[in-house]
Amino acid sequence: MDDCIFCRIIKKEIPKEFIYESDNLVVFPDINPSADIHFLIIPKKHIKGIGDLTDSDGLLLSEVYKTVDKLVTDNNLNDKLYRVMVNGGKAQHVPHLHFHLLGGNWKKFV
Ligand code: AMP
Ligand code: ZN
């Protein structure tokens, strides 16, 4: 979508260094981190939010959580605290589905 900031980052119209990229998703650090480690895992497909997922997104969701597990391992979070969060409703500020990975000390509410 032309006016979606995450779509523009994914299309590389806005420069951003990715921590990880596959055919289906990208990962980059949150610009305003709420924890020591705060990454956004973002499907490339513009899905607005949880309510817009369909059965055909099952493999995509599996890839999201496999990627979370890789990031957890790469950042030595298995022995520390980590959480995966999705905001919805009025708590969601960017209307393009994304998963927050928060690890280490949590500084504030996402
Ligand atoms: P949410 O409230 O779940 O929609 O979260 C959106 C998140 O995206 C917030 O934590 C923002 O700090 C983050 N964010 C917004 N724009 C950017 C950007 N250009 N680069 C990195 N993170 C961003
Ligand atoms: Zn988008």
Describe the structure.
The protein is of the alpha+beta class and 110 residues long. It has one domain: HIT family, subunit A. Helix content is 21%, strand content 25%. The protein contains two helices and five strands. A five-stranded antiparallel sheet has the order 1-2-3-5-4, covered by helices on one side. Strand 2 (25-29) and strand 3 (35-43) form a beta hairpin. The longest helix is centred in the middle third of the chain and has 17 residues, at 58-74. The protein starts with a helix and ends with a strand. Adenosine monophosphate (AMP) binds at residues 5, 30-32, 40, 87, 92-94.
What's the CATH H-level superfamily name?
HIT-like
* Overall 3D form: globular
| Termini Cα gap | 25 Å
Mean pLDDT: 96
User: Major sheet: size, sense and barrel closure?
Assistant: 5 strands, antiparallel
CATH architecture classification: 2-Layer Sandwich
Strand content: 25-35%
CATH class type: Alpha Beta
Q: How many helices does DSSP assign?
A: 2
- The CATH topology is HIT family, subunit A
Topology at a glance:
Blueprint: H1 5-10, E1 20-21, E2 25-29, E3 35-43, H2 58-74, E4 82-85, E5 99-106
Antiparallel strand pairs: 1-2, 2-3, 3-5, 4-5
Adenosine monophosphate binds next to loops.
Short summary:
This protein has 2 helices and 5 strands; from the N terminus they run αβββαββ.
List keywords for this structure.
single chain, 110 residues, alpha+beta, HIT family, subunit A, five-stranded antiparallel β-sheet, 2 helices, 5 strands, 21% helix, 25% strand, binds adenosine monophosphate, binds zinc ion
